């Protein structure tokens, strides 16, 4: 049970984030839904409260647009002002294979939302997380990280853009971020771990084009072979709640078990360099 604990879940209005928020609320946590669209968040909140049952915790909606560094800063200022503690931060939100667009700060959108927005969010909330220790940070990555590469000469995909590669790169960045952050959090009482949820039926694939004639077949196959959002959320919930991972630092999990990563996701030198460049991109110094 999570009575007395405050949890932030980004992208909590749909998919894995929504299922995660519902379960944490059912366990009587105080869940802050960090969402881009208030209307969709309010609709999701009603559904989450119905799912969570009578003995539930508290649900709070806060606006957060991870594609806007200004929005991230405003969100964090409000959290620091209004919340006495943050026990768990779940960096869940993401976008998948969108056409080439740039964020309002001029960054390729998938890299901006999936990596940079969460990078800034976590850094700005780190002092509050440390004051709340023992506390946990959870980073939702993807097995598709395996197809990504960190090209420091073209992080913004201005020389070339492949939407699948860009997504994979952003998910690799999540793992490298987790690795470097784990070193920086040693002896603080704050742990950070990542997870890969598997293939889940969510609206994440809304930018993926499926021919009209194949859609019925695809929908049938997805119901047969893809995880439900509730199944996809299990590792996030495990990392948030389980005593088994108390004190565990800098690991990646799948299906609630530790996952062995490829060497590209455990490269200390690349992780440090990505951190330093990310600091410059989001405008922070440490």
Description:
About 45% of the residues lie in helices and about 15% in strands. It is an alpha/beta fold and about 290 residues long. The chain has a single domain, classed as NAD(P)-binding Rossmann-like Domain (Rossmann fold, 3-Layer(aba) Sandwich). An 8-stranded mixed beta sheet has the order 3-2-1-4-5-6-7-8, sandwiched between helices. α1 packs across α2 (about 40-50). The longest helix is centred in the middle third of the chain and has 23 residues, at about 110-130. About 45% of the residues are buried. It comes from Anabarilius grahami (Kanglang fish). Belongs to the short-chain dehydrogenases/reductases (SDR) family. Pfam families: adh_short. Keywords: Oxidoreductase. InterPro entries: NAD(P)-bd_dom_sf, SDR_fam.
Strand order in space, largest sheet: 3-2-1-4-5-6-7-8
- Encode the helix/strand succession as letters: EHEHEHEHEHEHHHEEH
Radius of gyration: 18 Å
Question: How would you state the average pLDDT, rounded?
Answer: 92
CATH superfamily: NAD(P)-binding Rossmann-like Domain
Q: Please state the second-level CATH architecture.
A: 3-Layer(aba) Sandwich
Q: Mind summarizing the main beta sheet?
A: 8 strands, mixed
Q: How big a fraction of the residues is strand?
A: 5-15%
Helix content: 40-55%
**CATH class category label:** Alpha Beta
- CATH fold-level name: Rossmann fold
Number of strands: 8
Q: In the residues, how many domains can be counted?
A: 1
Low-confidence spans: pLDDT under 50, at least 5 residues?
A: 204-208
**What structural class is derived from the secondary structure elements?**
alpha/beta
Distance between the termini: 35 Å
The general outline is globular
């Amino acid at each position: 049970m999570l009575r007395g604990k405050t949890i932030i879940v980004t992208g909590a209005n749909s998919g894995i984030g929504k299922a995660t928020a519902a379960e944490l609320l059912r366990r009587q946590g105080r869940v802050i839904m960090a969402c881009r669209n208030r209307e969709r968040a309010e609709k999701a909140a009603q559904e989450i409260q119905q799912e969570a049952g009578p003995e539930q915790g508290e649900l709070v909606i806060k606006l957060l647009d991870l594609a806007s560094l200004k929005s991230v800063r405003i969100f964090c200022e409000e959290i620091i002002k209004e919340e006495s503690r943050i026990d768990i931060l779940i960096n869940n939100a993401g976008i998948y294979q969108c056409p080439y667009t740039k964020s309002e700060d001029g960054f390729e959108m998938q890299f901006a939302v999936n990596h940079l927005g969460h990078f800034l969010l976590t850094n700005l909330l780190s002092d509050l997380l440390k004051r709340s220790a023992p506390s946990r940070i959870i980073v939702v990555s993807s097995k598709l990280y395996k197809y990504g590469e960190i090209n420091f000469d073209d992080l913004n995909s201005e020389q070339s853009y492949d939407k699948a590669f860009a997504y994979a790169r952003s998910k690799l960045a999540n793992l490298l971020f987790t690795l470097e952050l784990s070193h920086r959090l040693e002896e603080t009482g704050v742990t950070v771990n990542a997870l890969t949820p598997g293939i889940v039926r969510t609206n994440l694939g809304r930018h993926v084009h499926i021919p009209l004639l194949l859609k019925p077949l695809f929908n049938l196959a997805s119901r047969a072979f893809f995880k439900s959002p509730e199944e996809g959320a299990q590792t996030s919930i495990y990392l948030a709640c389980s005593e088994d991972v108390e004190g565990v630092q800098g690991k990646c999990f799948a299906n609630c078990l530790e996952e062995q990563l490829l060497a590209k996701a455990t490269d200390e030198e690349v992780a440090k360099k990505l951190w330093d460049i990310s600091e410059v991109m989001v405008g922070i110094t440490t």
